[in-house]
Predict the 3D structure of the following.
Amino acid sequence: MNQKQLRQKLEKKQLDNLYIFCGDDYFLKEIYVNRIVKVSGFEPVKLNILQIDELEDIRFKILSEGLFDSSQRVYHLKLNFALDKKTILFKPKRHIVIFDPIECKLKNDATVEFTKPSFDEIKAYLKNKLKRENKAISEKNLDILSGYFVNQTTSMLYNETEKLLLYTIDKNSIELDDIQACLAHKTVFDFKMLQKLFEEKTQKGISDLVDAVLSTLSLPVFIYMLSKEVIKIYAACVCSEQCFEKLFGRFYFRYAGLAKDIGCKKVGVLLKKLYETDKLIKSSSNEYLSSYIKAMFVVWMQDEL
């Protein structure tokens, strides 16, 4: 079955006790986990399974819970390995189990294939999203924008749409020039760039890195993307691994490593500075804002608290 067939079943409140989610669209899979939780009314539990040997203990725990506990749960098991014939599958009577492997080598009646959205689905999503954000767009430009996301994941569709909204934050309509300027370039800001930014101590080094990012991103988009990453670093300071994975998915140890290197108090200070910067950007068109950002980073990086 695919996600459309699963959606139809959920709309009829038809639930199974076992699902195998296949595909690399993590954003879409999370949406359907939440839909299953909502329809069932069960308590959600997300578990990250690093090795196949751990599944036996998880199986015993889930299957035996009905003997001692009357509550019902949706277990989202994120497998850090491929699901194949050697994988121990189990179907509880009281609970719902969702196997979510990094790769599916075994498929059966419980399998849900998550495919990339069609042109019509993309267009409908964008039309509703832009309407909610009070952004006007012509039918021709909507078709061009929708075509950009064909054969892409819903994760990319969501993130790039958020970038476009930030890029046009001070405009009431989205024109072709906006679409081309915002979406034509690959974003250079990624986790490695984040690491470099936090490792750099000199004014020139920070200035060069910020310039490199702003050569492909507008300032509002850069602050938005950076803030999202800093929030994850701060979450790694105050959350357990399980809590972090429930909020943001994988990569807890990446952000926990940065939190340890930077210091949690210092991360909190940066969050406040980014919030203040975001307010400044939205209330000002000052041409020197990029210089302000560089200076803010230099002061923050050199402050030992």
Notes: The chain has three domains: 3-113, 119-183, 191-302. The domain at 3-113 is CATH 3.40.50.300 (Rossmann fold). The two ends are 55 Å apart (CA to CA). Strands lie at 18-22, 43-49, 73-83, 96-104, 111-113.
